[in-house]
């Protein structure tokens, strides 16, 4: 969601907290009954972020938020104009949400040994979904803002052994360092150079 907001040059106020250890007691009741981040309070009178206005729309789910930002900032170009290309971007995002992310979580965050092989398989599948060069569906889009954080982190975590996974070393690293990951990795390195 942050990438979408930044790409759209949206004005927003960030309310940052530790979802696991310091979730404010009003979060579930006033912002997101699902209890998850990211979440967005949109519209209504301007208030302090810890006092969300009852009139504002309360929204959650990363992919819904990314599409919402693309909708309200059409000039951001995040939504591909061509319906076919847009559908392809949504298809990639759906695949990430339902297949990639759960295994990414089990592998890196839960350290489940049984997640290793299926995770490396979804990494392979992603290689097939993405072009060899350029972004996910051509120009930078809703697909890139949704998946780039994972595509950048995967090789970095494997190369530097970050996470709870028990890796088998070079085989895992090789799996995540193929062409389809490179455009996003270069974006990441470009950001570092600018910062
Ligand atoms: N499908 C949701 C998943 C969000 C999610 O699982 N967020 C985690 C943090 S990465 C969370 O808030 N977990 C708190 C909880 O499950 O209690 C999305 O993409 O927004």
Structural description of this entry:
The chain has helices at 2-7, 27-31, 62-72, 83-109, 116-129, 142-160, 170-175, 182-194, and strands at residues 39-42, 57-60. The protein has 195 residues and is mainly alpha-helical. The chain has two domains: 2-76, Glutaredoxin, CATH 3.40.30; 83-194, Glutathione S-transferase Yfyf (Class Pi), Chain A, domain 2. It has a two-stranded antiparallel sheet. The chain is globular, with a radius of gyration of 18 Å. It starts with a helix and ends with a helix. Glutathione binds next to loops.
Key phrases:
195 residues, Glutaredoxin, binds glutathione, Glutathione S-transferase Yfyf (Class Pi), Chain A, domain 2
Compact summary:
The protein has 195 residues and is mainly alpha-helical. The chain has helices at residues 2-7, 27-31, 62-72, 83-109, 116-129, 142-160, 170-175, 182-194; strands at 39-42, 57-60.
Question: What is the N-to-C order of secondary-structure elements (H for helix, E for strand)?
Answer: HHEEHHHHHH
Alpha carbon gap, first and last residue:
20 Å
Task: Name the overall outline.
Answer: globular
Give the helix proportion (percent range).
40-55%
What about the largest sheet?
A: 2 strands, antiparallel
What oligomerization state is this entry in?
single chain
- Bound ligands, each once: glutathione
**What would you report as the Rg, rounded to the nearest angstrom?**
18 Å
- Structural class of the helices, strands and pairings? mainly alpha
- Mean pLDDT figure: 88
Q: Helix count, per DSSP?
A: 8
């Amino acid at each position: 969601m942050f990438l979408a907001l930044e790409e759209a040059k949206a004005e927003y106020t960030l309310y940052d907290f530790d979802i696991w250890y310091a979730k404010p007691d009003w979060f579930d009741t006033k912002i997101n009954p699902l209890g998850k981040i990211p979440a967005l309070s949109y519209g209504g009178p301007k208030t302090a972020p810890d006092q969300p206005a009852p009139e504002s729309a309360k929204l959650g789910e990363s992919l819904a938020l990314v599409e919402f930002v693309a909708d309200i900032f059409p000039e951001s170009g995040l939504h591909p104009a061509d319906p076919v290309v847009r559908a392809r971007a949504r298809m990639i995002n759906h695949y990430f949400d339902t297949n990639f992310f759960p295994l990414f979580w089990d592998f890196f965050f839960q350290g489940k040994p049984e997640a290793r092989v299926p995770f490396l398989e979804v990494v392979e599948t992603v290689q097939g979904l993405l072009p060899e060069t350029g972004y996910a569906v051509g120009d930078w889009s809703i697909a890139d803002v949704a998946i780039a954080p994972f595509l950048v982190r995967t090789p970095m975590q494997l190369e530097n052994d970050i996470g709870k996974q028990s890796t088998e070393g070079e085989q895992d690293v090789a799996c995540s360092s193929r062409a389809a990951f490179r455009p996003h990795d270069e974006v990441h390195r470009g950001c570092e150079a600018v910062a």
